Amino acid sequence: MRATLLEGLAGDLRHAWRVCARQPLLTGLVIVTLSLAIGANAAVFSVLQAVLLRPLPYQNADRLALVVEGRRGDRSLSSPTVPEMLELRAASRSLDRLTFFDSRDFQIIGGDEPERVAGARVEPSFLSTLGVRPEAGRIFGEGDAGREIVVLSSGLWRRNFGGDRSVIGRTLSLNGTPHEIVGVLPDTFSFGYLSPASIDLFIPYPMSAEYTSRTGEFAGVRRVQAVARLANGVSLEAASAELATIATAMAAQYPQAYKGSGANNAAFFMTVQPLEEWRANQSRPVLVMLVGAIALVLLIACANTAQFLLAQAIEREPEVAVRSALGANRARLLRQFVSEGVLITGVAGAFGVLQAVWLTNVLRSLIPRGTPLVGDIAVDAGMVLFLLTVTLASGVACSLAPALRFARTDVVQGFNTRGASAHRSRLRQAFITAEVAMSLVLLVGAGLLLSSLLALQREQGGFSTDRVTSMRIRGMDSGGTTGEVYGRYLQEIARVPGVDAVGMASSVMPGRPGTAFTIEGASGTAADLARQRASYQIVSSGYFATLGIPLETGRVFNEDDAAGRPPVAVVNREMARRFWPDGNPVGRRIRAGDGPRNATMTVIGIAGNVRPPLQTGDVPQIYVSYRQQSEANMAIVVRTVTPDLPLAGIKTAIWGIEPRQAVFGVTTLDDQLMQATSNQRGLAVLIGGFAILALAMSISGIYTVITYLVSRRVREIAVRRAIGASSRDVLWALAAPTVRWTILGLVAGAAGAFAGVDLLRSAATGILPLDGVLVAALAVTYLCVVLIVIGTAARSALRIDPAAALRAD
């Protein structure tokens, strides 16, 4: 019985191959487009699997959660401070463990030159909370807080120490301070689910009073991230309820720290968020958009294939009628049609494997550099299984149209009325409508992404990128204040041949307006003051000249604006316009800065507005002197006389002052700005590629339909031509139904595009409102392409000789 069934299936496949071979060009086109759709779906699945579907590689990951806090009514959440976490740890019974970490740059000495690595400072129980076991040595334990010891990642261990296990006990210089290597982590440990940085080493968090005390200098810093493990039997809801109670008690105990909160005001709250949910929330909008786009491509490809199979099936009605008359039942006929669909999709799936490998590499190249999970995106057994599943499902789905058409129809009657069924014509046109609608949605999405990206690039300005290069440093303890040492760096770099101007800043471009400030003598409601925020940058005086930022009034910083002198600040034109009615804040005093940087400063100048990438519109900006406010992590910006950067001379100038100083992240400002919009450009490339593929598929489907109609209506066309019909009349008779259904598809696609624009905004920053002009322009362009394709496909109808056609019939 089984052998008979397999033999019958083999016969069906051989017959299907012969049928497809009758139209090799159309069959090949269908296979190519379907293979691209299947391969693209598999490639996107590899991203989805790496980011969302693969279980977190931590022990009992379902019990891990992040601790966050915020103010009710404010959508933004942040991590607690170290003092808050220590108090929470002492008070909570629902959290079995509560630990934390932050990440920062470190410099290691011992190679050809100082090297920068990304490291994490972790509370001693952090690694054990995640269930990490060392590859060699040990991890941190009780009593290790603040000790000068280090645990290496597997990557750094293999890269810098050749995987030598005797490295345990050696000394590694970090920022000029010797640290003993006590352990190495396994290569299976991934930090990418907790931090966007690729971490190379771990050191214990310094649990000194300046971090742990409510009155400590860094007590209010929120750079740390809190990770908790729920106690056994405790639900997420119970833990959140307990944390809310503890937060209310904190607000009552420290009312000055939580202004607006207190025993009778529960504005301040703490809660827990599952680590897996947090991971999903970071990537869900982009992934949902990608999955939705590629699903549309697959649906278009399946509709295209189903349309091709339906046309073939209708063409074979005489054959089917004969087979039915000879005793073939409907189940046998259905099996034949399904075999044909599975054959085509099977071949497409085989080619789809190659497409998936190529597209996976393309996706990896489009993801921003340094993203830790890029290495997890690969062709593996899970992706191949998904590809096989999609191939099989597509084969069955594509076979439904011809199979159900014959399942509902008396085959012999269908043979006698060949070509007269309006139902099958409507079915083919419905496929076209669906393809057109889905294609237009993708085209509008790609067009909106591209136009938004161009608008963002037009918006940025107020500075010059010509021959400007940036590089990063992290300050060392060099026997003087950080500002003094940095000042010596700048002096020596300015003397390097080829350097035209040099400056320094805490960030090359201004950031978002996240620093609160007040204006001395100004009045306002609490709500007004809460909304009074500006971007905040620590810079040198040369920063403005290097980037070509104009000084409009007053002055920039000079050598007298040093530590111990009255604090000063420079603001931008937008801040002056918004907050000083006379437009001249010079001489006025403001109070700004987070944590230990909070100070009252006198405004000494107004600089021009700067719009960095992804910023639409001008925002208030405060600049403060690097000599008055210390920051270890700084960027050096250099403008050169020629496009060639004298990097060796710059490093030599720095090492002449501090030989241990690492210089890293060297990049031109143009490249840095391009990298800032890499997510938007990557999405535009992906969605644009999907849209072009969908357009090609839908157009090929229309071409197939018109070609089929011409072959089916030769006699009708001959009669029309014989009685005097013009070429225009013949074309319209062939094209009118397709054009009408195409227009219906364009209308549906336009509605779908307006409905889906919110998804696009959630996935990318700076998306413009959807303009009806853009939708109309794309729809009209699409219709013109369809008309050209119809004319191309119908040319053979205009060459029909009526007399010859009628005699042949």
Short description:
With 809 residues, this protein is of the alpha+beta class. The chain contains 25 helices and 21 strands.
Core attributes:
single chain, 809 residues, alpha+beta, ten-stranded mixed sheet, six-stranded mixed barrel, 25 helices, 16% strand
Give a verbal description of the structure.
This protein has 4 domains: 197 residues, no CATH class; 161 residues, no CATH class; 167 residues, no CATH class; 183 residues, no CATH class. The strands form 3 sheets. Strands 1, 2, 3, 4, 5, 6, 7, 8, 9 and 10 form a 10-stranded mixed beta sheet that branches. Strands 13-14-19-16-18-17 form a 6-stranded mixed barrel. It has a 4-stranded antiparallel beta sheet with strand order 12-20-11-21. The chain contains 25 helices and 21 strands. With 809 residues, it is an alpha+beta fold. It is globular, with a radius of gyration of 34 Å. About 2% of the residues have low confidence.
* Contiguous helical run count: 25
Q: Which structural class should the secondary elements be placed in?
A: alpha+beta
Characterize the biggest β-sheet: 10 strands, mixed
- Termini Cα gap: 46 Å
Strand content: 15-25%
Helix content: 40-55%
- Computed CA radius of gyration, to the nearest angstrom: 34 Å
Number of discrete domains: 4
Note the overall shape. Answer: globular
> Mean pLDDT across all residues, rounded?
81
According to DSSP, the number of beta strands is 21
Low-confidence stretches: 261-265, 411-423
